[in-house]
Design brief:
By secondary structure, the chain is of the alpha+beta class. Helices cover 39% and strands 22% of the residues. It has ten helices and 15 strands.
Length: 297
Amino acid sequence: MRRSELNDLAAFEVVAREGSFTRAASTLGMSQSALSHAMRGLEERLKVRLLARTTRSVSTTEAGEILLRSLRPALEDIASGLAQVGAFGAAASGPLRITATKNAITAVILPVLPAFLASHPNVTVEMIVDDNLTDIVANRFDAGIRFGNIIEKDMIAVRIGPDRRRAVVGSPAYFAANPPPVSPHDLGRHDCIAYRLVKTGGLYAWEFEEDGRPLDVRVRGSLVFNDTDLMRASAIAGMGMAYLYDDDAEDDIQAGRLVRVLEDWCPMLPGYYLYHPSRRQSPPALVALIAAVQSGI
């Protein structure tokens, strides 16, 4: 691929993201007429229309959307690689503020933190536990960590963990008194420890898969928490069944404190991604943390 073709593809992504030749030209530092000419040339070479132009806005055609789906990850990988290379010329230092779920911190970040902080003594890491999809720009976070399927498309997202699975668990004492469910449809007859979503105020529906289709079950029980550690402790104490991440429950399952049920019904969930908003060079501290976490995948 010639350098000019790569430049035109990168410019096309900016036009699609901005929805305006004027804004895209300003972002790219080029004239609007030169950008329009480049986009017409790209369409002529590909022999397909990529952009639908009106007097007020620009949008992608169906062909343009197909191209974007493959183009954006490639451009993000290039940007991430350039940022990591650039980080070698700058020492990682200063504060790093990240929002993440408790499970993401426990499963992905904590295992690499000792070595990371030892290698970067001038970096301070602040982790804010939040199950909501926080606006990291408005709240001045350097990055966030969430599952890949819920991250907004305008964010740069880097995979930092494998796919995961949920686990429905209860104590041996609980199942001695209550026959284990054989399908999610049986949960209505059980005391289930529910999770309260703080942002919406609703109760989290337990997610399953039936014949390849999603199956969400609204459970009820005597206990409601917004903390998974308390849910796990209550399940161990025999106060009901809990819906946890499998790695949160693994040690207790191995030790016999918890029994897993409905395993075949629990779908795989997309892995964790670290996401941040800027396409400019990332802070060296963030680049270094991403590299440390990815090395542990």
